């Protein structure tokens, strides 16, 4: 399973990247706003740091302008994936940009039918939003499962990029179901290391190290 980091914060990306935990990065207008940086400038910096796909989202809602924006975004670096919303115009832009040979991430997916359309339009990635479905008492994981089944039934190569991940359990469940990629905030990825028995066990070892004055160096 690939790990993408859902942020435009350079330091956070660099920390995880140094550990080999970053297979790509996803950004969106809200994350760019949070960074306070210029979209082109910060996206270039991310692309210079990370080898894998870096999603940068268009701002337009009509296909023609989305395509023009996409063509400008892909000039930033070879690893740009143009992110377009799951609308009819977004699908048109997806088809044109993928036909041009660019990676496209179709975002704001909330149904399996939408995911089916994105695959038909040649999307490289489909981004189902798990947390936002859970927020309205629907089951985000059920959507990931449905898309996995449908894509496998017909051999679609579009990668399932589980997004809007809010907890370590979202990551675990996505891995169990077989999502190709998860994108999560750095804090959620780092929280995967936590376990109370690890802390308890380490405390006991540290106490014995002190009691027995165990030294290696
Ligand atoms: O990249 C988009 C997605 O991950 C947003 O997450 O938490 O704002 O629903 P969230």
Automatic annotation (TrEMBL):
Superkingdom to which the source organism belongs: Bacteria
SUPFAM superfamilies, A to Z: Aldolase
Cellular compartments per GO CC: cytoplasm
Catalytic activity entry: D-sedoheptulose 7-phosphate + D-glyceraldehyde 3-phosphate = D-erythrose 4-phosphate + beta-D-fructose 6-phosphate
One of the record's GO molecular function terms: aldehyde-lyase activity
Pathway assignment: Carbohydrate degradation; pentose phosphate pathway; D-glyceraldehyde 3-phosphate and beta-D-fructose 6-phosphate from D-ribose 5-phosphate and D-xylulose 5-phosphate (non-oxidative stage): step 2/3
Active site location: 83 (schiff-base intermediate with substrate)
Cited InterPro entries: Aldolase_TIM, TAL/FSA, Transaldolase_3B, Transaldolase_3B/F6P_aldolase, Transaldolase_AS, TSA/FSA_arc/bac
UniProt-listed Enzyme Commission number(s): 2.2.1.2
UniProt keyword annotations, A-Z: Cytoplasm, Pentose shunt, Schiff base, Transferase
Record carries keyword Transport: no
Subcellular location: Cytoplasm
Any Pfam family matching the protein: TAL_FSA
Biological process annotations from GO: carbohydrate metabolic process; ketone catabolic process; pentose-phosphate shunt
Family recorded in the similarity comment: Belongs to the transaldolase family. Type 3B subfamily.
Function: Transaldolase is important for the balance of metabolites in the pentose-phosphate pathway.
Protein name in the entry: Probable transaldolase
Organism: Falsiruegeria litorea R37
């Amino acid at each position: 399973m690939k790990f993408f980091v859902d942020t435009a914060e350079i330091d956070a990306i660099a920390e995880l990247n140094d550990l080999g935990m970053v297979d790509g990065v996803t950004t969106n207008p809200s994350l760019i706003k949070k960074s306070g940086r210029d979209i082109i400038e910060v996206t270039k910096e991310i692309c210079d740091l990370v080898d894998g796909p870096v999603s940068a989202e268009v701002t337009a809602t009509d296909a023609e302008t989305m395509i023009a924006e996409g063509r400008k975004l892909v000039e930033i670096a070879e690893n740009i994936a143009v992110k377009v919303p799951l609308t009819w115009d977004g699908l048109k832009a997806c088809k044109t940009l993928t036909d041009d040979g660019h990676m496209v991430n179709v975002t704001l997916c909330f149904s399996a039918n939408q995911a089916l359309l994105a695959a038909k339009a040649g999307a490289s990635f489909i981004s189902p939003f798990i947390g936002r479905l859970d927020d309205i008492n629907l089951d985000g994981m059920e959507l990931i499962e449905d898309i996995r089944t449908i894509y496998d039934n017909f051999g679609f190569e579009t990668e399932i990029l589980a997004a809007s991940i809010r907890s370590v359990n979202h990551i675990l469940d996505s891995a169990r179901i077989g999502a190709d990629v998860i994108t999560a905030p750095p804090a959620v990825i780092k929280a995967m290391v936590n376990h109370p028995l690890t802390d308890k066990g380490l405390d006991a070892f540290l106490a014995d190290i002190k009691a027995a004055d165990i030294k290696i160096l």
